[in-house]
Amino acid sequence: MGKNLSIATISLLLVLASTKAQQVFDVKSYGAQPNADITQALTKAWKAACAVAGSKVVISAGAPSDVASFNGKDGWVAFERIDGLTVSGGGVFDGEGQQAWQKNECAKDKNCNLLPINIRFDYVTNSKVQDITSKDSKYFHINLLECKKLQLQHVTIIAPADSPNTDGIHMGRSSQITITNATIGTGDDCISFGDGTQDVTVNQVTCGPGHGISIGSLGRYENEEPVSGIRVTGATLSNTDNGVRIKTWPASSSGVASDIHFEDVVMNNVANPVIIDQNYCPNSQCSNQSPSKVKISNVSFKKIRGTSSTKEALNLICSKSVPCQQVVLSDIDLAYKGGGGSTTSTCTNVQPAISGKLNPPACTNKHY
Ligand SMILES: *[C@@H]1O[C@H](CO)[C@@H](O)[C@H](O)[C@H]1NC(C)=O
Ligand SMILES: *[C@@H]1O[C@H](CO)[C@@H](O)[C@H](O)[C@H]1NC(C)=O
C-alpha cells in the first residue's frame, strides 16, 4: 500500500479498510496537509469511501501537540459506529504528548480536564486492528467503548514510564475482544478492563514499563456493569509496578468481577506481581471509611513465575463486606529479586484454594 507516499516525511501512515478492500481514497486527494488538522479531508474521503462497497482510506498526518487545539475533545482519532473495519498498515499514531503531560492535573484533581486519547473505538464491531503503533499519547493510548468482536493484533505502544495516565489499551462495556501479540511500554496500566467488559482473551502480551495488567478500577461510579470472562495467557511483564491485578475502590458502589483467569505469566523485577487490591485509592481521592462493595469471585492465578522486586510478592486484599470467593493459586514461583530471603504473601478476607508448587506459600500473613 501507499507506494507513492514517502514514509520518511509522514509520521502516520495507515489504512482503514473494509474487509475486502478495493478502491483507494487517499486523504491527500481531499486536501490533507502533513502535520495539520485533517478532520475535514478525512471526513470527505470517508464519505466518498462509504459510497463504494469494499473501499480503503489512506491517511497521512501528524498530531497537533498543543492540547488547546483539541477544544476539549476526548480523542485524537476516533472511530465510531463502524461494522467490519480494518485498521492496519504499520503506521505510527504519534500523540506528541510531552507538552500535555506537564499540564496533567489528574493526580491532584479528580475532576481534571480530560486530555485526548490517541485512538478511540466506540461502538465498533466485527473489526480488526493490526500492525499499528501508538506513541506518546497525551492520555490513554487506545480506548474501546461498547465494542464487540474486535481483534487487536500486533499492536505496539510506546511512552515513557513517567508519562501520566497513558494507559496502553483500556476497554469498557465491550465483549468478544482478543488482543494478541501486543508490546506495551507506558506510564500507566498496560491493559485495563473497565466495567461491562466480558469475554476477552489476551494472548502473548509483553508489558513494561508501566503499571501492569489490571481488572478495574471498579466501584468508583454508580451502576457499573459486571466484568467477567477475562483470560490472560502467556504474558511477560518487566520492571512494572504491578503484574496482574484486580483493583476496586473502598466506600464504593456495588459491582461484580468474576471468571477472571491469569495463566502462564512471567514476571521480571515486578513490584506487586500478583495483587487483588480492594482498597485501591490513588492520590487519596476517596474516603477510606467503608469497605469495597465489588464482589470478586472465580479468579485463578496459574503458572506465574519469575522475580518480584519487593518481598510481598502475592497480595490478596479482599473486602470485609464481600470477601473474595473461589480464588485459585496454582504453580506460583516468585523469587525476591533483591536476594536475601524468600517472598511472602498476604490474604485478607479470602481463603484461596491452592495446588502445585507455591513460592511464596499461600497466606504467610492472614487477616480474616
Ligand atoms: C508477533 O510479533 C512478532 C514481531 O513483533 C512477529 O514476528 C510474529 O510473527 C507475531 N506473531 C503472531 C502470532 O502474530
Ligand atoms: C469459573 O470460571 C470457569 C473458567 O472460565 C468457568 O468455566 C466457570 O463457568 C466459572 N464458574 C462460575 C461459577 O462462574
TrEMBL record:
The keyword Transmembrane helix does not apply. Residues 1-21 form the signal peptide. One of its GO terms (biological process) is carbohydrate metabolic process. Keywords: Cell wall, Cell wall biogenesis/degradation, Glycosidase, Hydrolase, Secreted, Signal. The keyword Phosphoprotein does not apply. GO terms for molecular function: polygalacturonase activity. It is found in: Secreted, Cell wall. Its main location: secreted. Pfam families: Glyco_hydro_28. Transmembrane segments: none annotated. InterPro entries: Glyco_hydro_28 (IPR000743), PbH1 (IPR006626), Pectin_lyas_fold (IPR012334), Pectin_lyase_fold/virulence (IPR011050). Belongs to the glycosyl hydrolase 28 family. This is Polygalacturonase. It comes from Quercus lobata (Valley oak). The lineage of its organism: Eukaryota, Viridiplantae, Streptophyta, Embryophyta, Tracheophyta.
